[in-house]
Request: fold
Amino acid sequence: MTFSIGIGPNNRKSCYFDATVGDGVKSFSTYNHMFIPAHFGDPAAEYDRLMNGVAMWDVAAQRQVEITGPDAGALIQYLTTRDMGSTKIGQGRYVPLCDHAGNLINDPVLLKLDDNRFWLSIADSDIALWTSGIGAERGMDVRVCEPDVSPLAVQGPKAEAVIVDLFGDWVRDLKYFGFKQTDLDGIPLILARSGWSKQGGFELYLQDSKHGSNLWAKVKAAGQSHGIGPGAPNDLERLESGLVSYGADGRLQVNPCNPFEIGLGTLVDFDKGDFIGKAALKKIAAEGPRRHRTGFTIDGGPILHFEDNLPVMDTRGATVGILSEAAYSTRCNGNIGVGMVNTDAPADLHVTYDNETRQVHVATLPFC
Ligand code: THG
Reply:
């Protein structure tokens, strides 16, 4: 099967597009209506760089939703399940967003830039529309827009050395999710200690897309002596680490789930004022979730990475869970996956993979 997906006006290019093509990107996915590199054709090398060296990823499709104005803080409080009261300027927070039924609709990283200025660094769903709609309907004095901001992630155990070479020793003092407005030879950006891996690293939020190729080249040059190479948000590492992937682990339109089901229940704070989904989530919390996110191990020989929502069945063939993503992990010496399992599911479970019955076992996240 060979086919191509055209690049047209409905999916935008990242400002790093030319640079990633130059570095040999082999596959794109789409995310927030943009193209995002999926891989560069060498999964083993890309994984190894993330685990043992340093990798650079075009994550410009993690779009920023900017909220400014006198009611910006109040709107943020109303949008998220977490209490933002103690958040300081220069601090990021992981903030689940729910709809009125309590379903997760996104899990952004929030950046508090100023008392009246915030960014939501979003996963794949239309949060700018949601935010401006909610703000306007509530009569709030806010402005919501998508600024010209394009994150570039530098991840892996040697990421700090590269970032120190580029920006200086002060970056060592950045706390996890902490960020600072700075520039690189005049290129404006916000530097944050964050990123979608458990291997440590930084994200450069470029604030002027015309410098995309130039910034990519500067990071690549500084990383050369540390063995930097291109990559993309790494599915195998995130399975091993148990990071949530909105879209793969749950998505409103495919597999709606609430924060208690997806493992973000500790980020729901009922002691703050009203927020979207509060009443529904209180009811869910009182009744107890009927399923929860879990790891799975899958018996048998190595499987190929998939993100397919396979039904997890009991011995009678009843569906009691979902295996949403799985891969073979050398680090775990076996097949691992994540998904959902019903609270009352029995221990003897299986999936049908490639026309074959495979036993699966519930496992605790993270795997390693
Ligand atoms: N960086 C930035 N924006 C993003 C992501 C990112 N937007 C989309 C997507 N990723 C949002 N999803 C996540 C999911 C998990 C984490 C960050 C963003 C994460 N989780 C830590 C964990 O689970 O251990 C810490 C969570 C916490 O503080 O409680 O880092 O990667 N800019």
